[in-house]
Every structure is written in structure tokens, then in C-alpha cells.
């Protein structure tokens, strides 16, 4: 039985207009994302990758073309579409567990077991009564991921969630995110400007052109199980995508293994 597409995008074009000037952010995007998959979207600054993620999530509904999630036209944000931003956006006056509780639907507000389940999933069971100011940046992002997952979305959209973190914390959270994806079997889509991150996390890597953003190429990464950052499979996928970027920019490229 064929795997269904949870996201279907057809002829998506997005133009920003401030009344004086028009900027075309996306042009004629066509993309299908299979349910349960992990997709990375990568491109330079201003290529429209975050805009596309916001449209999929229902945070931006002014566009031309068609965007479907789970077979329905996207018209607004909903709990079936979880979102994690670069900034964790935790409420500073609430504890970790109350931040998660705040995001839950009315019928789940008193479900302490649900809150504990997702704090355990991100490895923060011992910090449920901590305030955001008592957490490291990586821990705060774990809470943001737990908060999004506690609503049991069909798809988790991540907009450069590790971009502000140090290298070691970023690697650790990438590992945690993969474990969550494998355990929860939820569709994940991450926007990133980090090629290594895109290759390591994504089964598919969508490469965007400079503005106006179009899909230049989609790479399938087969890194085996478990996924490794070392070895020929990762190196080959990384090299292919690096060459694609440097070719566009016409910058000399040297790759050393």
C-alpha cells in the first residue's frame, strides 16, 4: 500500500506587497511530503524557506496556489500542525510544566500524566517545576519541542530550532530529535541553513534557489541505520549538496575528506 502524502503543495507563489514595492518570495513551488517522513528544507537567507514553512503551518494564508495538509486546504493554524521556532517562546513567569499545560486544549489542561510523558520524552522530568530562566538554551528548546508534541500533531514544523545554540548542544539536540521522530513516528519538516544538519536529519533534502525561492533539487539521503555523521554515505550526500550551492554562487569549491 502506497504511503499517503501528508503535505501537498501545487504551484505555490508568495508575494510580499507593502503598498509600494513587491517582493516575490516563492515562485511555483510543487512539493509532496510523505506521512511519517523527515524532510529538510535548506537554502540561503531570503530564499523563502521559512515563509514556506509558515504557509504549511497556516501562519500565512495569503498566497496563490494550493497547499494541503492531511488532505485539507490550509486556512489557519491548528493543533494538527505543531510549530517549533528558533526562539523557544516560553512564558517566563510559568514553570516548565505550566508552559506545556498552557498550550493544551481545554479538555487536556488537567492531564498531568500527559505533561509528564512528554517531559520524559525530551529528558526533562527533573525540571518540571523550573522557570525558563533556570534552563540552558538547549533545555528550553527541549521544552518547546515537548510543548508542541503534547498536542499530538500530525506534523511537526521546525524553523531553524537549533540555530542559536552552540555546536555541541546542537548535535545533542539533533540526536534527541531523531530519537523522538523514530519513537513518535510523526512527520517532521525542518528549515535550516546548516547543510550538515539538513543531511543528517532529513531523509529528503529540499534545496531552494535564491529569491524568488524555487525548488532546485531534492536529494534522498540513505545514511543507513543507525544514521552516522561519518563514513562515505554522509560524505557523499554532503558533498553533492555543497557542490550545488557553490555552483549557484560560482565560488570555487574544495572538499576534503
Concise structural overview:
A hairpin with a 4-residue loop joins β1 and β2. Helix content is 32%, strand content 25%. α2 packs parallel to α4 (137-149).
Task: Describe the overall structure.
This protein has 257 residues and is α/β, with parallel strands linked by helices. It has one domain (5-228): 3-Layer(aba) Sandwich (Rossmann fold), CATH 3.40.50. The chain has 7 helices and 10 strands. It has helices spanning 49-56, 96-103, 112-121, 137-149, 167-184, 195-201, 232-249; strands at 5-17, 22-34, 38-42, 64-69, 72-73, 81-84, 155-159, 187-192, 204-208, 215-220. Helix 2 (96-103) packs parallel to helix 4.
The biggest beta sheet is recorded as:
6 strands, mixed
* Radius of gyration (Å): 19 Å
What is the distance, rounded to the nearest whole angstrom, between the alpha carbons of the first and last residues? 40 Å
What is the β-strand count? 10
Q: What percent strand? A: 25-35%
Order of helical and strand elements: EEEHEEEHHHEHEHEEH
Report the principal-axis shape: globular
CATH class: Alpha Beta
CATH topology: Rossmann fold
How is the topology of this model organized?
Elements: E1 5-17, E2 22-34, E3 38-42, H1 49-56, E4 64-69, E5 72-73, E6 81-84, H2 96-103, H3 112-121, H4 137-149, E7 155-159, H5 167-184, E8 187-192, H6 195-201, E9 204-208, E10 215-220, H7 232-249
Parallel strand pairs: 3-8, 3-9, 6-7, 7-8
Antiparallel strand pairs: 1-2, 1-4, 4-5, 9-10
Helix pairs in contact: 2-4, 3-4, 6-7
What are its keywords?
Rossmann fold, 257 residues, globular, 4-stranded antiparallel β-sheet, 7 helices, 10 strands
Amino acid at each position: 500500500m502506497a504511503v499517503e502524502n501528508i503535505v501537498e503543495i501545487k504551484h505555490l507563489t508568495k508575494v510580499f506587497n507593502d503598498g509600494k514595492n513587491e517582493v516575490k518570495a516563492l515562485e511555483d513551488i510543487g512539493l509532496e511530503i510523505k506521512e511519517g517522513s523527515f524532510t529538510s528544507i535548506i537554502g540561503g537567507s531570503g530564499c523563502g524557506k521559512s515563509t514556506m514553512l509558515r504557509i504549511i503551518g497556516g501562519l500565512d494564508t495569503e498566497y496563490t496556489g494550493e497547499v494541503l495538509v492531511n488532505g485539507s486546504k490550509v486556512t489557519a493554524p491548528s493543533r494538527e500542525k505543531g510549530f517549533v521556532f528558533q526562539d523557544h517562546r516560553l512564558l517566563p513567569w510559568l514553570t516548565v510544566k505550566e508552559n506545556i499545560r498552557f498550550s493544551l486544549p481545554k479538555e487536556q489542561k488537567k492531564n498531568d500524566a500527559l505533561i509528564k510523558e512528554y517531559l520524559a520524552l525530551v529528558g526533562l522530568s527533573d525540571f518540571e517545576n523550573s522557570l525558563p530562566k533556570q534552563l540552558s538554551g538547549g533545555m528550553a528548546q527541549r521544552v518547546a519541542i515537548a510543548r508542541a508534541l503534547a498536542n499530538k500533531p500530525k506534523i511537526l514544523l521546525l524553523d531553524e530550532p537549533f540555530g542559536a545554540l552552540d555546536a555541541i548542544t546542537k548535535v545533542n539536540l539533533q540526536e534527541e530529535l531523531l530519537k523522538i521522530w523514530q519513537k513518535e513516528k510523526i512527520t517532521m519538516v525542518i528549515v535550516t541553513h546548516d547543510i550538515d544538519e539538513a543531511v543528517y536529519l532529513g531523509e529528503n533534502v529540499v534545496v531552494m534557489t535564491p529569491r524568488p525561492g524555487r525548488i532546485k533539487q531534492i536529494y534522498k539521503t540513505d545514511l543507513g541505520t543507525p544514521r552516522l555523521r561519518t563514513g562515505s554515505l554522509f560524505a557523499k550526500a554532503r558533498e553533492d549538496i555543497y557542490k550545488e550551492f557553490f555552483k549557484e554562487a560560482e565560488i570555487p569549491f574544495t572538499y576534503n575528506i
